[in-house]
Structure prediction request, 308 residues.
Amino acid sequence: MNLIAKYAKLIKAEAQRLGFSTCGIAKAEFLEDEARHLENWLKNGYHGEMQYMENHFDKRLDPRLLVEGSKSVISLSYNYFPEKEQSKDSYKIAKYAYGQDYHHVVKGKLNELYNFIQYEIGEINGRAFVDSAPVMERAWAERSGLGWNGKHSLLIQKELGSYFFLAELIIDLELEYDTPFQTDHCGTCTKCIDACPTEAILPNNTIDGSKCISYFTIELKNEIPTSVKGQFEDWMFGCDICQDVCPWNRFSKPHSEPLFKPHVDLLSMTKTDWQEITEDVFKKVFKKSPVKRTKYAGLQRNIQFLKD
Prediction:
């Protein structure tokens, strides 16, 4: 086994030990196909008021602008599918937000992997990314052989479905690269498109972000437009509709990450509990949760919109 293959095998074994479900490696280079798609997506205004999506266009498409001299993009997935879900009589939160903020949890494990590479292989330069910088994570995951992009634009894996986070290590070390994932196993299925109540899922694996329930309940800072009244199906933070109906998610298995376990009160809270939630309860239930992003006032706005 040559050195680049040996290093790749070593890294993947450590990633598995740290709890990552899958790990793949791609050559760090310009994403030509994605450049056209991103340009059209922005031109069509599918990013809504997410102005940050217009920033760092070149960096989003070329990892060598994020890490000087980078040669490899290591993509990893981390399962977050919960063992239990919220009660039926409840306003709903996307499953990824049940536990502690994934940015911190997964980033910590990614930094551990980076330190391992430094210790075992030698001094390298690199950066860790968990949905917090201009990185086309799904494109890199596909190039790394981890899965394919479904019609809902999320990465799908045959064995796991789509309930997982993606993370990347971009480093200036040459490694053995994996074969890009070539086959789209969605076929003629349109369950996610048909189920989306706001018609945010467009043909050709494209999402109109400005119509997505997650956009309205998290990203949008102004009042939610009355034109989408009655279309949220009780989702108050994020949305899992397109994932819940996806046939591949019948293979989802509960995660084993203690930090992703929900607060003891979360799953049993009813609509009445949410309507009466105080700021103190909000801070207690969502102490280290990504739900803090919308703040107490934002969650109240969302609940009021669903209630009225």
Q: What stands out?
A: The first helix runs from residue 3 to 17. The first strand starts at residue 22 and ends at 27.
